[in-house]
Amino acid sequence: MGDPVQLKDEGNKFFQAGDIDKAIECYTKAIKVCKDKKVLAVIHRNRSACYLKKENYANAASDASKAIDVDAADIKALYRRCQALEKLGKLDMAFKDVQRCATLEPKNKTFLETLRRLGADIQAKLKTTFSTDSRVQNMFDILLDEEMEKDKREKAANNLIVLSREDAGAERIFQNNGVPLLLNMIETGKPEMILAAVRTLSGMCTGHKARAMAIIHMVGVDKMCSIMAVDNEEIALATCNLFQCINDSLTGGDTREYGKEEALVLDAAKDLKTILLSLLEMVTSKKVSGHGRDQALNLLTKNVPRRDKKEKDNTKALFTIDHGLKKILKVCGQVSELPDQLSMTENTQLIASVLLNKLYDDLKCDPERANFKDICDEYIKSKIDPNNMDKTIHAVNTISGLLQGPFDVGNALVGQQGIMEMMVALCGSEREVDQMVAVEALIHASSKMSRASFIITNGVSLLKDIYKKTKNERIKIRSLVGLCKLGSAGGDDYSLRQFAEGSTEKLAKQCRKWLCNPQIDTKTRKWAIEGLAYLTNDADVKDDFVEDEPALKAMFELAKSKDKTILYSVACTLINCTNCYDKKEIIPELVQLAKFSKQHVPEQHPKDKKDFIEKRVKRLLKAGVISALAVMVKADNAILTDQTKEMLARVFLALSEDPKDRGTIVAQGGGKALIPLALEGTDTGKVKASHALAKIAAISNPEIAFPGERVYEVVRPLVSLLHTDRDGMQNFEALKGLTNLAGYSEKLRVKIVKEKALPEIENYMFEEHDQIKQAATECMCNLVTCKEVQERYLEDGNDKLKLLVLLCGEDDDDLQIAAAGALAMITAAQNKLCSKLTLVTTQWLEILQRLCLHTNPKIQHRGLVIIYNMLNSDDSELAKKLIESEMLEILTIIGKAEDNPKRQEPIDTARTCLVKAMELGLIKPFSSPS
Asked: Which windows of the sequence hold TPR repeats (predicted)?
């Protein structure tokens, strides 16, 4: 079994050698076999010291207690328990232990200092606790006092919200009977009180599983749903946020350890299922407002489909399809012009389509997809009734919703026998509502060339007929959009025009006319943008459109409206106007070959060349495109899909191409708007947005471009562009942006280091491309003042310092300025590097001499600063070596030169070096004979 004393001694040796794990192992073995109480106490005390080193404070306190049980005056054990208890937050118990230590050794400075510090901490904690308790109660008193002044109540409400966002404050509110008091505030029925209560509950639920579960049971899911159902957009959005905070806390967002409380934090699966079923119930409830329905659909979109397709579990999606797919389809089929419809906003049906698309996309196999299609098919068939036109147009509108969501499902339904014929028949109906629904369905159905060709054959004359005969503007504009879409079926291929020369321009002119007419409602005017989204594939149309400033401004105003269904059409139109879609490079030889073999070759329109695109960008910026984009990005809505975000990122990148325009982009809030696009969305979208950010960050004042804390969010997107799978321009502009940020503040330099950018920047310092190498070196020059960067240069076994020295010897002036600047700063900060510099290459002295003799005063000055740092480095041998070399002659020539404003810095630095050499006794001052 082993001798406990021997095992203890072995443990002591391991502890002294720094091998804590082995020491714990020896002490544990010794504890198992030791029978002597006093020896056992010593072993426990020693193991306590090990646990302190490992930051396992609970075990450290436990072992120290076992030693104290044997000897209550064991001063080492008492102090170790005090340290452990302090780390565990048990300040009063720690204070008692150190008080005992100070009684046993009254002159021990460590004990006295700890006693003073803990006393102050306890007082501060008590003060906070009592003041927070009284503040919480005081706030509720003010809020629930109907006679209190309005501004005082508003201030109390804001204070309560702020307090709930800190864990200590949230716990205080919770412990002080806060939840029932918040429910009293909700019961007042006053919107501002409900908002304050809901936002406070959100703060209390954020990141705390136990509290979130308690609040669900105290408030009740039904109660939360009824709050979200009210016809108030702000309250619906705040309650949606509360549900999201609860979901995040219950599904793994909360990583804290609860210890004994863990048993109270029950399995959250039941609560999550209750919430899901309640949200599905809200989707078709007549008691729910349009805003409430939107937020219920938004929550389902955000939380049901898997966030990462690598996760295997898609049971939430399957459950939602089984229990709620028909309900979502019902929302898609609503026709607001008919009686007895669900309350909806302009956005509701498109949000439902987005949800359908995400659910379908979350399915993993053909049987799951077949089940989805079968439910849709069954629902549509149940609604088609030749004797009930209202039910039939509900079915057609549902198909429209599917065509905007999972297109394959909608397309399969349209392809079924009789459906297309029914849509065409409805176009000829005498009821205007039938015509409107049918025309919309035809528009959505013609999204693929094969379908479009069918409708061109069967539907164009029909749409033209409706357009000419109807007096209803709403139907007229929709039939025109149908014609626009069919007319653009060839995309931007100049040779594939569907209509006669000039027809698309006429259609576009009519769309612009409607767009600028404020008498027409927003829902109808948005169809004018939809038409332009198709027609601007034609370069003549986009050129005319950007020249029409009132039409541009009208589109931007609509983009800022509450109707978010417009986002995609606006994004498409801007993509077309700026030509920022991906284009395949057409090789001339292959074009000739294709023509010879009579194959179709896409042709570029003359107005799609670079100079035309640049003019269009200038016109868009002048009309205020950036402020519209900034509002579009803020849409807290499922309609702002990853695909739409990618399009907005592409537009931003196209707009920021010319450095002269970047000031305008910053001034109108473009810098801030790009950050969320760079952090969320498709991979391509994130890269495009990050590239646009890099262009702005490279030449703008970070404080103005990204005000407040936002500047720190810019670092990660820029670092993501440094990977080798990005192109050279992205690498270069990211490095330029990081250089600018690194020169701004120490906090930003630390952030760049934390984002693991250093290895990437160092790699690019080896790059063959001169501009990228220079940008990386400039970036490193701004980073070397950071302690962590200096430590990397101090480490042995790498060529980092050697690279800097060799870069100083390059022929490129800008590269030399950056490398010599970095070397000057880093040798000033770390004396040890002065000696290390002489060991990395035999050419060091020659390179430094060349720097000091350089014709460029900036390079010369940096070289002389390096020499001064070496003389000032406490390495007398190094200083002697420098003065014994030709460097003394160089310093003397420069120092003796006449004052010259253009070269004053190097002259002054050379003189300072000579003075330092005199101080070191390496040279003597010149004195004339008496």
From this structure: 4-37
Q: What is the DSSP letter of 423?
A: H
Range with top average pLDDT, 213-227, 786-800, 864-878: 213-227
Strand (E) or helix (H) holding 132 = helix 109-143
> Tell me: the pLDDT tens digits for 803-835?
889 999 888 899 999 999 999 999 998 888 898
| Predicted confidence (pLDDT) per residue in 58-70, tens digit | 999 999 999 999 8
Residue type, 209: K
Indicate the pTM of the whole model. Answer: 0.74
Judge whether 842 lies within some domain.
yes
How many domains would you assign to the chain?
Answer: 2
Q: Can you tell me the distance from the alpha carbon of 793 to that of 535, in angstroms, rounded to the nearest whole number?
A: 59
Single-letter code of the amino acid located at 229: A
CATH number of the domain to which 89 belongs: 1.25.40.10
CA proximity to 444, closest of 475, 474, 418, 407: 407
Task: Look at residues 599, 99, 663 and name the one whose alpha carbon lies nearest to residue 91.
Answer: 99
Report CA torsion sign: 651, 653, 659, 665: positive
User: Who contacts 770 (Cβ-Cβ below 8 Å, separation ≥6)?
Assistant: 812, 815
780 and 767 Cβ atoms separated by less than 8 Å: no
pLDDT at 612: 84
| DSSP element (H, E) containing 313 | none
* Residue type (1 letter), 656: S
Query: Counting beta carbons within 10 angstroms of the beta carbon of residue 175, is it exposed (0 to 12), middle (13 to 18) or buried (19 or more)?
Result: exposed
Both structure tokens of 680: 């969320």
CA distance 672 to 82: 48
Question: At which of 107, 133, 163 does a domain end?
Answer: 107
Domain end, chosen from 89, 107, 125, is at 107
Helices and strands in the chain, H and E counts: 54, 0
Q: What's the pLDDT tens digit per position in 831-882?
A: 888 988 888 888 899 999 999 999 999 999 999 999 999 998 888 888 899 8
Residue ranges in 488-537 assigned as alpha helix (H): 503-515, 522-535
Residue 110 has pLDDT above 60, yes or no: yes
Q: Which of 439, 382, 375, 369 is nearest to 408 (CA)?
A: 369
Residue 445 lies in a domain: no
* Residue reference for tokens 């439902």: 352
Q: What is the pLDDT of residues 557-608, one digit of tens each?
A: 999 888 888 899 999 999 999 988 776 555 555 555 555 555 544 556 667 7
Q: Across all residues in the chain, what is the average pLDDT?
A: 86
255 residue type, one letter: T
> CA-CA distances (angstroms) from residue 28 to 4, 24, 694?
10, 6, 56
Instruction: Check pLDDT > 90 for residue 317.
Output: yes
> What domain range is 814 assigned to?
786-929
Query: Residue 873 is part of a domain; what is its CATH number?
Result: 1.25.10.10
| Structure tokens belonging to residue 35 | 């029978």
The answer to whether the beta carbons of residues 22 and 7 sit under 8 Å apart is no
CB 176 within 8 A of CB 216: no
d(CA 370, CA 3): 71
Q: Is 312 exposed, middle or buried (0-12, 13-18, 19+ CB in 10 A)?
A: exposed
Listed range (29-43, 89-103, 132-146, 312-326) with the worst mean pLDDT = 132-146
CA distance 46 to 42: 6
Nearest to 296 by CA among 360, 230, 200: 230
- Asked if residue 844 belongs to a domain, the reply is yes
Residue 106 CB-density burial (10 A; 0-12 exposed, 13-18 middle, 19+ buried) = exposed
Q: What is the amino acid identity at position 276?
A: L
Predicted confidence (pLDDT) per residue in 124-182, tens digit = 776 665 555 566 777 777 777 777 777 887 888 888 888 888 888 888 888 888 898 88
- The torsion defined by the Cα of 710, 716, 720 and 721, in degrees rounded to 10, comes to 40
pLDDT > 50? residue 491: no
Read off the pLDDT of each residue in 922-929 and give the average, rounded to a whole number: 63
